[in-house]
Design a protein that fits this description.
It catalyses: a D-aminoacyl-tRNA + H2O = a tRNA + a D-alpha-amino acid + H(+); glycyl-tRNA(Ala) + H2O = tRNA(Ala) + glycine + H(+). By secondary structure, this protein is an alpha/beta fold. Helix content is about 35%, strand content about 20%.
Length: about 200
């Protein structure tokens, strides 16, 4: 997949930005978005394997791998929800907050990649966006939302700690503990090697 894209204002002949091969990213900022959401989106934009490799194999290379460009366009309407047949945009971050947030994502993209390959439109402008898709392929990318309830956060942290402790023991130690427990329950139980299957043997 590849695309060529340009952003131009609705009135006038000035072309704001254009790219050759690469990604055209329509970026909507939610009122609940944080820096973690921004970091996730930046990482995914640069690393999603959306392009073919030199041998023509699809879904193997990222924009970074192929040295392609990225055009970002602020798009608050992506946060639209419908109330009946009327669009509602209360989920979108207010413009006075969204603008610096959007520009911080652009700066993050530039510092994480080649700044000359990151292009953008004009925040809040009424633009005509011309996109020529080779595909066409559209990926809906949403940052994962974590729970806001402190009790739920604490529960998740404890679950993660238990998982880490289990992993740190290693499978061999865990298996030895299970074997020892079976032996303590029935010292005469057979392993089944001679055809005698113990009632304590796990399926």
């Amino acid at each position: 997949m590849s695309s060529t894209a340009s952003c131009v204002p609705a009135v006038g002949e000035e072309e704001i930005s254009s790219i050759g091969r690469g990604l055209c990213v329509l970026l909507g900022v939610s009122v609940e978005d944080t820096q973690k959401d921004a970091d996730y989106i930046v990482r995914k934009i640069l690393n999603l394997r959306l392009f073919e490799d030199e041998a023509g194999r699809a879904w193997t290379k990222s924009v970074v791998d192929r040295d392609f460009e990225v055009l970002c366009v602020s798009q608050f309407t992506l946060q639209c929800v419908l109330k009946g047949n009327k669009p509602d945009f209360h989920s979108a971050m207010p413009a006075e907050l969204a603008q610096p947030f959007y520009h911080s994502i652009l700066e993050n993209l530039r510092s994480s990649y080649k700044p000359e390959l990151i292009k953008d439109g004009r925040f809040g402008a009424y633009m005509q966006v011309h996109i020529q898709n080779d595909g066409p392929v559209t990926i809906d990318l949403t940052s994962p939302m974590g729970p806001s309830d402190p009790r739920q956060l604490s529960k998740q942290e404890k679950q993660q700690q238990r998982k880490e402790k289990t992993r740190s023991k290693g499978p061999s130690e865990s298996s030895r503990e299970k074997g020892a427990a079976r032996s303590r329950r029935d010292p005469n139980a057979s392993s089944g090697a001679d055809g005698d299957v113990s009632s304590d043997r796990e399926p």
